[in-house]
UniProtKB/TrEMBL annotation:
Keywords carried by this UniProt record: ATP synthesis, CF(0), Chloroplast, Coiled coil, Hydrogen ion transport, Ion transport, Membrane, Plastid, Thylakoid, Transmembrane, Transmembrane helix, Transport
Subunit field text: F-type ATPases have 2 components, F(1) - the catalytic core - and F(0) - the membrane proton channel. F(1) has five subunits: alpha(3), beta(3), gamma(1), delta(1), epsilon(1). F(0) has four main subunits: a(1), b(1), b'(1) and c(10-14). The alpha and beta chains form an alternating ring which encloses part of the gamma chain. F(1) is attached to F(0) by a central stalk formed by the gamma and epsilon chains, while a peripheral stalk is formed by the delta, b and b' chains.
Cell compartments where the protein resides: Membrane; Plastid, Chloroplast thylakoid membrane
Topological type in the membrane: Single-pass membrane protein
Protein name: ATP synthase subunit b, chloroplastic
Organism of origin: Astrocaryum aculeatum
Name of the gene: atpF
Coiled coil: 64-98
HAMAP family given in the database record: ATP_synth_b_bprime (MF_01398)
Note: In plastids the F-type ATPase is also known as CF(1)CF(0).
Chief site of localization: membrane
Length: 184
């Protein structure tokens, strides 16, 4: 670097005072230009840079504060939501238990109503069967009686002559008359 500085300071390398020219020695001119530019930037840009950094710092702090407030609000909302969820779960359990007990009550009522209906149907069936049996027995009795009566009449008609027939009728009328006097 000493060579670069020496060559920069040496008048031999400087063009004459009236002429304009480029120094093509990159090693000699670059550090100087950079140091001048940096010096100017630091001197004049220090305030602007500080203002930019302060603004950025304030925006970051504001964003952090907003984020903290949002986080606190979200935590409060989460707690309220958890409380509501807990209440809803309790209500759902109550509804579920009430629903189950209501279903059980309805089931028992339905079973009881069905049992009552079945019992009434069974009684109706038994009454109907008894009625039909009695009707059938009565029909059989009537037929047997009719057949017996026809048989007896046939036997009487074949065995009785007209005089015996008249005597039997008079005897029966007499018996009926005597029964009538007894009942009076």
């Amino acid at each position: 670097m000493k060579n670069g500085t020496d060559s920069f300071l040496s008048l031999g390398h400087w063009p004459s005072a009236g002429s304009f020219g480029f120094n093509t020695d990159i090693l000699a001119t670059n550090p100087i230009n950079l140091s001048v530019v940096l010096g100017v930037l630091i001197f004049f840009g220090k305030g602007v840079l500080n203002d930019l950094l302060d603004n950025r710092k304030q925006r970051i702090l504001s964003t952090i504060r907003n984020s903290e407030e949002l986080r606190r609000g979200a935590i409060e909302q989460l707690e309220r939501a958890r409380t509501r969820l807990w209440k809803v779960e309790i209500e759902a359990d109550e509804y579920r238990m009430n629903g189950y007990s209501e279903i059980e009550r309805e089931k028992e009522n339905l079973i009881n109503a069905t049992c009552d209906t079945l019992e009434r149907l069974e009684n109706y069936k038994n009454e109907t069967l008894h009625f039909e049996q009695q009707r059938a027995i009565n029909q059989v009795r009537q037929r047997v009686f009719q057949q017996a009566l026809q048989g007896a009449l046939g036997t009487l008609n074949s065995c009785l002559n007209s005089e015996l027939h008249f005597r039997t009728i008079r005897a029966n009328i007499g018996i009926l008359g005597a029964m009538e006097e007894i009942t009076d």
